[in-house]
Write a structure and sequence with these properties.
Length: 365
């Protein structure tokens, strides 16, 4: 692949070659490289225009660059025999996959352990992303008065067993880090899900409640306040309510230290991400996950939650394209790369080739 930049290729033609390499393998790539070195310079531009025109026609009049959708189209690389293929993860497929048993005896011991943990997490996250398909459909018929989660968010019902209303928590608990850390019964009320938690007095979110919640602006505003409350607890602040972008607060070192020592907060973050996706703040998921990827993989913070970020946080993101891009970012910043188990090996090899090409481009004069 080092030949790309010794052959005077434009980024577009590089994308064409990369596309051919992905589909035709090394033999196809070598033939193209051999052919390209004999193409006169004045003809290369005309050839590029011709290829662009062909792609324009093929895409129904929409301009296309074969390199611009690398992450989106790489599902073609999925192979059930891949050593890191996970039957519970549909990130790289257009349709949910059938469960398959994967032979892991050839993997190094550390990778086998990581991959098993990922598989266990993936099953849970797939259930969430598929909107709990085994949830009883008669929940749609719940009586209006049987909506404790919505009533709590409308200020008409206290959380149990604490007996606090939503406004009490927002006003009195903001910045009270001891309460937020050591009380474990409020989180199921602040971020309800269609699955049970450790608080037996909290209610599972019903399908009807979700519909009613999404149509109630007051409830959604209160959920946003709850999100900001918990972000502050973790040393994070929301800086854009439209995009969901976040950043560290001034006291982030203290809060990160607490997070790193009390890793049960990873379960809370997973719950928060799931709730955001269910109750109208889907666009907030990816920015928060990207924040944790940067802090764990790039900045070296929060080492004790790194695998939770990769096993759970990333796979809580409902938008498949964003989830793929997050995984690509994770792979690019993960070391050692041979221990990365969160996507099929063939896709990893494709990304590695992309990285080599990019490095060659940056080093070229």
């Amino acid at each position: 692949m080092h030949r790309f930049y010794s052959l005077n290729m434009s980024p577009f033609i590089t994308g064409v070659f990369l596309w051919c390499y992905r589909r035709g393998g090394g033999g196809c790539y070598n033939i193209l490289c051999w052919f390209w070195q004999f193409v006169p310079l004045f003809f290369r531009k005309r050839l590029e225009i011709g290829v662009r025109s062909l792609l324009w026609w093929r895409n129904g009049g929409r301009a296309a660059d074969p390199g611009e959708r690398d992450v989106e189209t790489s599902e073609t690389l999925v192979d059930p025999t891949d050593e890191f293929y996970c039957s519970y993860d549909s990130t790289w497929e257009d349709e949910p996959s059938q469960n398959r048993s994967i032979e892991m005896s050839s993997l190094p011991r550390s990778n086998r352990y990581k991959f098993r943990r990922f598989q266990n997490a993936a099953k849970d996250m797939q259930t969430y992303r598929h909107d709990y398909p085994n949830q009883p459909r008669n929940q749609h018929l719940s009586k209006p008065e049987a909506r404790p989660n919505l009533m709590f968010y409308l200020g008409q019902h206290p959380c149990l067993p604490d007996g606090l209303h939503i406004s009490d928590i927002h006003k009195e608990w903001h910045g009270d880090y001891n309460k937020l850390e050591y009380v474990h019964t409020y989180i199921q009320w602040l971020f309800p899900l269609q699955e049970p938690g450790v608080n037996s007095e909290a209610s599972i979110l019903t399908k009807q409640e979700i519909t009613d919640f999404l149509n109630n602006s007051f409830a959604k505003k209160n959920l946003l306040k709850s999100y900001k409350l918990m972000l502050d607890f973790y040393g994070i602040e929301l800086i854009n309510e439209i995009t969901g972008d976040v950043r560290k607060t001034e006291n982030w070192m203290e809060r990160f230290d607490n997070f790193n020592r009390h890793t049960h907060n990873s379960l809370r973050i997973t719950r928060i991400l799931k709730c955001l996706g269910t109750l109208g703040y889907r666009d907030y998921q990816a920015p928060l996950v990207k924040f944790f990827l940067v802090e764990t993989l790039v900045n070296g913070q929060l080492p004790n939650i790194k695998e939770s970020v990769l096993n759970y946080f990333v796979f809580a993101v409902l938008d498949k394209k964003k989830r793929r891009n997050l995984l690509k970012f994770a792979y690019e910043n993960y070391e050692p790369k041979e221990e990365f188990v969160w996507c099929p090996k063939k896709i990893q090899m494709f990304w590695l080739q992309q990285m080599k090409i990019q490095n060659g481009r940056e080093k070229s004069p």
